[in-house]
């Protein structure tokens, strides 16, 4: 178990007649990162997701009323957690004009929340998930998108809450963390494209992007109890070997998931590396990790519902993101980019 020891100095003053003497005593306070990671719970994730992937949000189609409700829900949660929007982002929303989208897609918005670093606030880690989905079909069936990507969205909320609790108790991150909920992923990665072309913080100061897209289910390749403790990682070693090493170490020390790199292969015919929001960071030279459970029989169907989510496993996966993020924002030097950009 990893512990960080913080020394707190207290001045003790005693007096005798007209003379005074002082001495320094040291009291140590133990800080255990695991206590904060364990605040990311299956119970809380389930509570969030049954709302977020419920019928009231009408499948969260980009620019439509259900997506607007989802954006408002996210803003409300960050306000409850006392996590502010970044300076210059009014009301947590980064508005994407209709002119940015192709076709008849309406204006939409990314949702941004921010925890400022204590020592190197200008260096920023971006944690992302897309909160849109595909809406309602011609038969009136709602595509709730519980796994895609309600799972990533609510994981981000839980991770943010854990980091804010740390900060409230005097253990805030050295570098800053941006929680970026992007819209328009299902339409063509529009929300992340807009952010990287109009970044709130310079991409040159963005140390990495950890992107969570579908982390609540088990695919057919991992069915059976001995195989279920897994997560696919994509892209961790493509731009920074240090990022890959940090991820591996965090998992070995804390979560002990089976890290499956099948879809990270350069010749992967699915090309998942290019198919979620991390790619808009990667193509700009920002190191990334894409966390993914693989596709399943309910992918992009009305049957992708909250009752089918593996909440305990989902919590463990979110904790891995938390531990990896913690190391990235608190290490002495930012990770080095030593790989080549793929476009």
Automatic annotation (TrEMBL):
<dbReference type="InterPro" id="IPR018247">
    <property type="entry name" value="EF_Hand_1_Ca_BS"/>
</dbReference>
<feature type="domain" description="Peptidase M28">
    <location>
        <begin position="110"/>
        <end position="323"/>
    </location>
</feature>
<dbReference type="GO" id="GO:0008235">
    <property type="term" value="F:metalloexopeptidase activity"/>
</dbReference>
<dbReference type="GO" id="GO:0006508">
    <property type="term" value="P:proteolysis"/>
</dbReference>
<dbReference type="InterPro" id="IPR007484">
    <property type="entry name" value="Peptidase_M28"/>
</dbReference>
<dbReference type="Pfam" id="PF04389">
    <property type="entry name" value="Peptidase_M28"/>
</dbReference>
<protein>
    <submittedName>
        <fullName>Peptidase M28-like protein</fullName>
    </submittedName>
</protein>
<dbReference type="InterPro" id="IPR045175">
    <property type="entry name" value="M28_fam"/>
</dbReference>
């Amino acid at each position: 178990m990893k512990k960080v020891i913080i020394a707190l100095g207290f001045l003790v003053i005693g007096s005798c007649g007209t003379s005074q003497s002082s001495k320094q005593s040291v009291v140590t306070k133990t800080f255990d990162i695991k206590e904060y990671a364990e605040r990311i719970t299956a119970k809380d994730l389930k509570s969030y997701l049954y709302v977020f992937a419920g019928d009231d949000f009408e499948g969260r189609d980009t620019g439509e009323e259900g997506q607007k409700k989802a954006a408002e829900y996210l803003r409300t949660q960050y306000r409850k957690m006392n996590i502010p929007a970044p300076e210059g982002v009014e009301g947590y929303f980064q508005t994407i004009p209709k002119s940015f989208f192709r076709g008849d897609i309406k204006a939409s918005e990314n949702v941004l929340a921010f925890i400022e670093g204590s020592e190197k606030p200008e260096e920023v880690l971006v944690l992302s998930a897309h909160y849109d989905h595909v809406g309602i079909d011609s038969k009136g069936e709602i595509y709730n998108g519980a796994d895609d990507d309600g799972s990533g969205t609510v994981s981000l909320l839980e991770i943010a809450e854990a980091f804010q609790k740390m900060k409230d108790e005097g253990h805030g991150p050295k570098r800053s963390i941006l929680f970026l909920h992007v819209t328009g992923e299902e339409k063509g990665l529009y929300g992340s494209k807009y952010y990287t072309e109009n970044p709130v913080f310079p991409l040159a100061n963005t140390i990495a992007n950890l992107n969570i897209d579908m982390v609540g289910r088990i695919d057919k390749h991992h069915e059976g109890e001995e195989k279920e403790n897994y997560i696919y990682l994509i892209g961790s070693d493509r731009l920074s070997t240090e990022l890959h090493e940090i991820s591996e170490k965090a998992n070995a020390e804390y979560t002990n998931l089976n890290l499956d790199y099948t879809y990270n292969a350069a010749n992967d015919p699915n090309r998942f590396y290019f198919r979620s929001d991390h790619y808009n960071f990667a193509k700009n030279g920002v190191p990334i990790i894409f966390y993914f459970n693989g596709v399943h029989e309910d992918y992009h169907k009305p049957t992708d519902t909250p009752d089918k989510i593996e909440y305990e496993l989902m919590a463990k996966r979110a904790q891995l993101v938390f531990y990896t993020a913690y190391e990235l924002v608190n290490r002495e030097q930012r990770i080095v980019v030593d790989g080549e950009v793929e476009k």
